[in-house]
Here is the input.
Amino acid sequence: MFVDKATIFIKAGSGGDGKVSFHREKFVAAGGPDGGDGGKGGNIVFQVDENLATLADFNYKRKYTGHNGCKGDASRRNGKKGEDLIIHVPRGTIIREVESGSVMADMSSLEPFIAAKGGRGGWGNSHFATPTRQVPRFAKSGTPGEEWEVNLELKLMADVGLLGFPNVGKSTFISVVSEAKPIIADYHFTTITPVLGVVYMGEGQSFVMADIPGLIEGASEGIGLGHEFLRHVERCRLLVHILDVSGSEGRDPIEDFEKINAELKAFNPELADRPQIVVANKTDIATAEQLERLKSYITGHGYAYYTMCAPISEGTKEVVDAIAAKLQTLPPIKRFNTEEIPVELFEKKKETGFTITVNDGVYFVEADWLLKIMHKTKMDDYESLQYFQRVLISSGIIDALVEKGIKEGDTVSIYDLEFDYVP
Here is the structure.
């Protein structure tokens, strides 16, 4: 089953809690605090698997949770780090954050992508010893791991996309010029999933061709199969538009050409400007008048025009040579740029509240939504730090600290951030 869309929930492991412990050794009095730090939580990592060609696995499992870090131990022993959870996806998968729609990663290479970072381990009580606080009886909890709901969308990695109405000969063409073995039959929508084929031009020279299931008028609005697969055209460097010049299906090839280009534009205006080569197929049953009419129209609109009879490989070599030559002049396969998830997205969740606890004069603030803002805040950047301070004020955290009795110089601890309170 070919599946090219899925929505899943990912949550990285939480950091282990710090340890409250005091050194105990014979003949050593008042050994002091020696609690170790908790281990870091495991990340959620996406990795391309060349053996995968579909997102079908995500139909059966939609929630992925990383491994938590272990708690710290006595004698300043840190907890064990949680193992990373690796999620395998096919090459070409786009990962988007659901709420903002931001592109988190384009899995077009073998480089792994950390989609959710594990939480940091909490500090053991040995970190909190000061000249005035020699017996700290508290430690920090580990921070929760990042969590996201993400959309996975597969956009095939192909140099060339074959366009055309059903039954114009796209599957026959790709089967002749590559090792692909699509189902070929004399009825509409024989091809119901995209088919990839590698076209070899000689040693060290090849390109990938995709047979996109037949488009029809209204495909961009959900009619027929085409709307399900238009996304796979987006990466293609070159489009090869195959037309039935003979009109054997009772359609006009010129009207077909105009309708499909209109669907491309409706789906994504960029596709209307993508380079195209037009190929007239079924020349064996076309009349001279039909061939001349189509050629005049296509060349008149500035497109390169070729003819072929795919079943007997007549003209296919010329078409492939023209494709290879054109690809030499075009930029690489499109990659989608990553986008920052707007930090304001997390600020909207501040109504979910926060907690403040006080231990030995240290004010601990916790809120999952605030942790996500901290991950996006550059503390060494003035404007970013000013924004973070405004969030603390607008969310009521500063007022709540005052109500708890905080004084100037007292320590505020927000996960792994600590600062002295200044009113």
